[in-house]
Amino acid sequence: MTANQVGFAFLYLAAFLLIGKWIRVRVTWLQNLFLPSSIIGGFLALILGPQVLGKILSNFVSKDSFWVNGIFPEQVTVVWSELPGLLINVVFAALFLGATIPGLRKIWDYGGPQLAFGWTIGWGQYVIGILLSLLVLSPVFGMPPLVGALIEVAFEGGHGTAAGLAGTFKEIGFADGYDLSVGLATVGILTGVIVGIILINWAVRREKTSVIKDVKGFSDLRKQGIMEFENRDPAAKMTVRPESIEPLSLHFAIVGLAVLVGYLLLQFLIWLESVTVGNFIDIRFMTYIPLFPLAMIGGIFVQVFFNKIDNARIIDRNMINRIQGFALDILILTAIGTVSIDVIGDYMIPFILLATAGLLWNVVGFLVLAPRIIPSYWFERGIGDFGQSTGITATGLLLMRIVDPKGDTPAFEGFGYKQLVYEPFLGGGLVTALSVPLIYQFGAIPFLIFAMIMCLIGVLVGLLHFGKK
Questions:
Q1: Is the separation of the CB atoms in 338 and 74 below 8 Å?
Q2: Which of the pair, 65 or 374, is modelled with greater confidence?
Q3: pLDDT tens, 130-140?
Q4: How many CA atoms lie within 13 A of 350 on its CB side?
Q5: Is residue 33 within 8 Å of residue 194, measured between CB atoms?
Q6: Minimal CA–CA distance to 299: which of 84, 89, 25, 59?
Q7: DSSP letters of 35-83?
Q8: pLDDT score for 318
Q9: Under 8 Å between Cβ of 31 and 224
Q10: Residue 217 scores a pLDDT above 60
């Protein structure tokens, strides 16, 4: 693979991002679903690539023809298939860079109820998924028990986490797990928005909401994903002078440093395992751990270091967000564009069972547990956690913005504080990254018991502590 081929693959990326955005602006029903342009572009790339168009045209052309890959040169799909696993490290390394971490008391008071609810839903996805795999998917369809982790990996973690675990799935001999995870993540985003809006309409009619009393649509520009003129604030601050270093270059270097710290930490853990427990038992657990959760820890280390030495506060959170968002857009588009439809087709019934079980658990958990765990503004606060647990963080923020457009409730503040404790573990954190290799190495039963205990802790703390306030 040459540098020209990599560059050409990025030209294709640029084209599909632009086309995805143009479709979002023009197609009303996609606007009503609030689908990101990267997802739209990814679906279009999937249709025009070797998985759909290529298979159709292969019936009419020779196997050596350009058209067996759709409109894509083969090297483009090769480059695209590697990008999600690389860019997820950028996304997670940026999570805590430039962020101000408040005191534990404030996190507990404001974000505690949402943390207890989100914790219960997240661990419950493992319980539901593993029980489904042990009772149905493994004995009936011959699938490995680790598929029970895919609901949390895909719904909570999203496309990025699925991409980050691609290497792990290959290492343990279940490469199809990546395609199933990406497919489930796509279903999660779609159902998260659709079901979330249905729940909002239901709550307004039943007077469950405290702020809005009727569902008012966003402006046409908002639905098209275009910032209103009066709201066009700078995307980032210039914390350094460009004649010394371009601010974007500086922040890119800081993100890269965080990834490097994570990589060195991972290599240290692999070495430590080899010279300690590796001398006594034939288990190589650390080699299955992906880089992205360690990149997140690397970002925390880098931020702590800058807090000690940087009196000028040169790390701008908004600039970090732009780098993170750029990486996530490319990650989502390439992950969807290269997913294997054949794999999903081979596991269609297990795929439907996993998606249905995950969605039902999230809906029932939201309707039953959220009003009993979250003491005030339960719908406005809980709908954000429902959106995140089904789709991605952006889905949760979108749903909260609909029911609390002016930020009159503690929903956004509580959600943000909850993330500081939640993200390092679930939703793509350490537990999400370790769940697949843990089940592979030690079996599904021990992890199921552990997940039940964690889920029960979330329920009890939520009901007995926060629910009584």
A1: no
A2: 374
A3: 999 999 999 99
A4: 30
A5: yes
A6: 89
A7: --HHHHHHHHHHHHSTTTHHHHHTTTS-TTSGGGGTTS-HHHHHHHHHH
A8: 87
A9: yes
A10: no
Q: What is the pLDDT of residues 17-56, one digit of tens each?
A: 999 999 988 888 877 777 778 888 988 998 998 888 888 8
CA–CA dist 5, 3 (Å, integer): 5
Residue 29: exposed, middle, or buried by beta-carbon count in 10 A (0-12, 13-18, 19+)? exposed
Q: What is the DSSP string of 270-295?
A: HHHHHHTGGGTS----GGGS-SHHHH
Q: What value, to the nearest 5°, has the Cα angle with vertex 394 and ends 392 and 396? A: 80
Q: Tell me if 388 sits within 8 A of 118, measured CB to CB.
A: yes
Q: How many CA atoms lie within 13 A of 42 on its CB side?
A: 26
Q: Which amino acid is at 313?
A: R
> pTM score, two decimals?
0.77
> Residue 297 has which token pair?
């820890």
Residue 349 pLDDT > 70 = yes
| Residue-level length of the chain | 469
pLDDT at 226 (0 to 100) = 75
Q: Is the pLDDT of residue 419 over 70?
A: yes
Element (H, E) at 102: none
